Structure formats: structure tokens, C-alpha cells
Amino acid sequence: MKRWLGKLYLWVFGWKLLGQKPAYKKCLLLAVPHTSNWDVPVMLSMSYIYGIRVSWIGKHTLFKGPLGPLMRWIGGVPVDRTARHNAVQQMVDEFARRDELYLMITPEGTRGRAEYWKSGFYYIALGAGVPIILGLLDYKKRIGGLFEPFFPSGDIKADMEKLRAYYHDATGKYPEKFGPIRLREEADEAAAAAALASATCNRSHPGEE
After folding, report:
1. Are the C-beta atoms of 142 and 15 separated by less than 8 Å?
2. C-alpha distance from residue 106 to each of 5, 68, 137, 206 (Å)
3. Where are the domains of the chain?
4. Selection from 87, 101, 95, 107 nearest residue 39 by Cα
């Protein structure tokens, strides 16, 4: 039934599904670009056709009380984001506990324009030893799906270059809200390198103003 509903939804709204079901039972799915609430039903419809149950991360307080079982039933995974807890390690542990987990993450972290991606997705995949499946929703071409796996190497700068190359021409529903594909760590590293270069130059020319 879900597969049929997924196909019907994509047909009604003119979407074409490409890619294929991941060959891995545990992986992290990137949903990019994320600029609208409409991204959710499109991606869910695609997951129904693939035949996978997508999970998502939610604040732990959402799972308290009578709504807790419902939140888990629809794929929610509770994470305590308070300062004394390591959210990344919680998800690494979750991958270790399960035999199957398709965890979908929107690295932009918001539907609005973000100047930096949140790096949690990268460190979760690296720590859990699972591939990142490159998911795409291109509203201009009206195509989407899950594509090739990407294994983080630990060289975050090199890996982000590959992600930039893959998503450079992707178009969200609201293109102006799709910000640059970069992590704050990269900007901090560049700033630190510039400061080091400046300090080195000043030491080489101590008498110059």
C-alpha cells in the first residue's frame, strides 16, 4: 500500500524517482536541498517506493508522555541535546544497537538559508562506520532519489569538496534559501591558517611597520 501511495504522490506532483534502494542496512541519508516543508512528503514517498523505513532525529522531550510511542512508530529517534550529552555519540551508539537504520538528516538544519551546514551528520557517519547516501530533491528538474554511497575519510576538507561538487547545481523549491555547502569548521580552519600565515610573515619582517 505504501509503495502505491508513494508512486501516486510523485505522479500527481510530477516527480521522477531516480537512484536506487541503498545496498546497506545501516546508513545515513542526506536530504539536500532542504528549503520547504514540501520536501518531507516527497522524500517519504520516495522511501515508500524504495521499501525502506526512514528514521529521523528528534529532541528527547518530544518522546516523553503518551506521544512517545507514536513518535517512535513514525521513525523518531530521541536525542538529548543538552550540554552534558554528546548528541553525535548518542547516534553512533544507536547505530551500534540496531540491525537496520536508515537515518535521514538535513545538514542545513533549517528550511531557511543557512550559511553553514551542521557537521553532525559527518561525524555520526564517521564514528558509526556507515556510508552517507547522497539524497537529492531537485525542484527545477523535478527529479530526486537516493544515489551513490559516500564514505567519510576523516579528511573533512577533501570530503566536503566532493559534496560541493555533487550538489553544486541542485535547486530547492526556494533556490534563494539554499546556502553555501560548507561547514563552520572549514571557515575556522581557514581563519586559523590566515592568522598563522600573518604571524609568520610578521616574525620574518620584525622591523617593518
Report:
1. yes
2. 24, 22, 12, 48
3. 2-183
4. 107
Nearest CA-CA partner of 160 in 183, 187, 135, 194: 183
Taking Cα atoms as reference points, which of 51, 55, 48, 42 lies closest to residue 10? Answer: 42
Q: Decide if 63 contacts 72 (C-beta within 8 A).
A: yes
pLDDT digits (tens, 9 = 90+) for 104-157: 999 998 888 999 999 999 999 999 999 999 999 999 999 999 998 999 999 999
Q: CB under 8 Å to 167, separation ≥6 — which residues?
A: 32, 33, 134, 136, 181
The alpha-carbon radius of gyration of the chain (Å, integer) is 20
Verdict on whether the full-model pTM lies above 0.90 = no
Selection from 149, 171, 159, 164 nearest residue 19 by Cα:
149
What does the alpha-carbon distance between residue 10 and residue 20 come to, in Å, rounded to a whole number? 16
Grid coordinates standing for 3? 509503495
Q: Is 185 helix (H, G, I), strand (E, B) or coil?
A: helix
Is residue 53 within 8 A of residue 47, CB to CB? The reply is yes
Contacts of 11 (CB under 8 A, 6+ apart): none
